[in-house]
Design goal:
The complex is a heterodimer of chains A (281) and B (147). Chain A is mainly beta and 281 residues long. Chain A is 7% helix and 52% strand. Chain A is globular and about 50 Å long. The two termini of chain A are 24 Å apart. The relative contact order of chain A is 0.18. The mean pLDDT of chain A is 94. With 147 residues, chain B is mainly α. In chain B, helix 3 crosses helix 4 and helix 3 crosses helix 6. The longest helix of chain B has 21 residues. Chain B is globular and about 35 Å long. Chain B starts with a helix and ends with a helix. About 9% of the residues of chain B have low confidence. At the A-B interface, strand 8, strand 9 and strand 10 of A face helix 1, helix 6 and helix 7 of B. The complex binds protoporphyrin IX containing FE. Protoporphyrin IX containing FE binds next to helix 4 and helix 6 of chain B.
């Protein structure tokens, strides 16, 4: 993102944060999760079955988020905006920028996402809420991914995600369980292209997260995300994180996490901090 | 690949099953929740605050324009008392009957729940008791919304 667009984005975010008395959606606090790194409603790494914000069956909602993950040899920045239509359909756009701090250079991609709630409700339905989502990703510059064996500069992930809140599950606290099944060809989420010299077909991967609402405004938990491993030049590993999300009101959430992204492009044991700010209305 | 998936799924699934079964048994007999709500007087204060909150909530107050509020108040007291394990019997109509034909929206349901949570908070109800009662009310959603 060019500098001026970045400034505009943050001005937009700050502007939204100021509007804490503006229209709020008619869903219970924190039932929209936060913005995961591909722009969908979820945790930090994993898309959940819930849709963005707190819009219910009576309106539209907008969210915007900025996130940064600083791990040993890389820095990932994500900016995302999303629209929720009647808590039925979520449309999202995210831009990822990965700085290769040690190797030099950068990798960037755009992700357009859509997620439809198939049935249920995260709070009220005995089976929770199930949604079907797609994330279409396109890299800016394919030269590095091509050089390491990737086949495509774009790809589309398809996922089925289920979320359910269990009331009074652990020490009187509510527990949020999410399970996601994703069909993907993406290497490192797409930043290293799609398909590879070891495998050029879709793979089914499992993702999940478990969180406890320590209070209605504080959610703590962990996430897990399986990934394909289809480039011979370097091993690709699963992603994990431990997170805390603070949701003071329906317009604001702050997420902090410790993330472990495993080996990336030959550099092992990539761990570090993650911070994400989301505004919604 | 498939075995890998199952290995990954086992832990969260087991956890979910354990937490579910752990709470299936104790509620009807125990009156811990009833005590934590403050027994009869505490529940009366919560219901009163709930009704006041609804009266001040422009999103849903119109829905109660024709309601018999004193009956509603009595019935909510009975219902919360019984659901929390107190010494009461709910004598009102079923949730399906009393909300039929009104086509209440999910948004309206959520607004009512928010008013209830605010009433809990105003009465310093312990979070565990709030969650336990909310957990009892949540499945009623299907009988109340879009009927
Ligand atoms: C967890 C959610 C709810 C619970 C536990 C609940 C409970 C009750 C109870 C116990 C009654 C009395 C039934 C009787 O008179 O025999 C009642 C009546 C009523 N409820 Fe609900 N309710 C819920 C949601 C809603 C919502 C979302 C609305 C509308 C926004 C609503 C509007 C009414 C009205 C207007 C009456 C009075 C009907 C009449 O007097 O003719 N309720 N409800």
């Amino acid at each position: 993102m060019p500098f001026s667009a970045k400034r505009l984005f943050f001005t937009f975010i700050l502007g939204l944060t100021g509007l804490t008395n503006a229209y709020a959606g008619d869903r219970i606090l924190a039932t929209g999760g936060v913005t995961q790194i591909e722009g969908s409603a979820g945790g930090g790494l994993v898309p959940w079955g819930v849709l963005h914000g707190t819009t219910s069956d009576n309106g539209l909602g907008i969210t915007a988020a900025a996130s940064r993950a600083g791990i040993d040899d890389y820095t990932l920045d994500v900016k995302g905006v999303a629209l929720n239509l009647y808590n039925r359909l979520e449309i999202s756009f995210a831009r990822q920028h990965l700085a290769l701090d040690t190797l030099g250079g950068k990798l960037e991609q755009d992700i357009i996402g859509a997620k439809a709630r198939l049935f249920g409700d995260v709070l009220y339905h005995p089976w929770g809420q199930w949604s079907l989502g797609v994330q279409h990703k396109r890299l800016d510059d394919f030269s590095l991914p091509r050089a390491v064996g990737a086949r495509d500069d774009s790809g589309t992930d398809i996922y089925l995600a289920g979320s359910k809140l269990f009331f009074d599950a652990v020490a009187g606290r509510n527990l949020l369980l999410n399970t996601t099944l994703r069909s993907t060809q993406a290497n490192q989420g797409g930043l290293l292209g799609f398909g590879g010299d070891l495998n050029d077909s879709r793979e089914l991967v499992v993702e999940g997260s478990l969180g406890i609402f320590v209070t209605p405004r504080w959610l703590a938990g962990f996430e897990y995300r399986q990934k394909p491993d289809q480039l011979s030049f370097a091993e690709e590993e699963e992603w994990k994180d431990v997170f805390v999300a603070f949701v003071p009101n329906k317009h604001l959430s702050l997420t902090a996490a410790w993330i472990d992204l495993g080996s990336i492009a030959g550099l092992d044991d990539q761990q570090g901090g993650y911070l994400s700010l989301q505004v919604a209305y | 690949m498939t075995t890998m998936i199952w290995r990954r799924l086992t832990a969260p699934l087991l956890l979910a099953i354990c937490t579910l079964t752990a709470h299936a048994s104790d509620d009807e007999t125990s009156s811990w929740t009833y005590n934590a709500l403050g027994e009869k007087a505490g529940i009366a204060a919560i219901v009163e605050d709930l009704l006041v909150n609804i009266a001040n909530d422009e999103r849903i107050v119109v829905r109660f324009a024709d309601a018999d509020i004193s009956r509603l108040q009595r019935m909510l007291n009975e219902q919360f008392c019984m659901l929390s394990g107190g010494p009461c019997v709910y004598t009102g109509d079923s949730m399906r009957e009393s909300h039929r034909g009104k086509n209440y929206t999910q948004a309206e349901f959520n607004s009512l729940v928010e008013n209830l949570i605010h009433a809990f908070e105003a009465n310093d109800v312990p979070l565990a008791a709030q969650n336990r009662l909310l957990g009892k009310l949540a499945p009623m959603n299907a009988d109340i919304v879009a009927q």
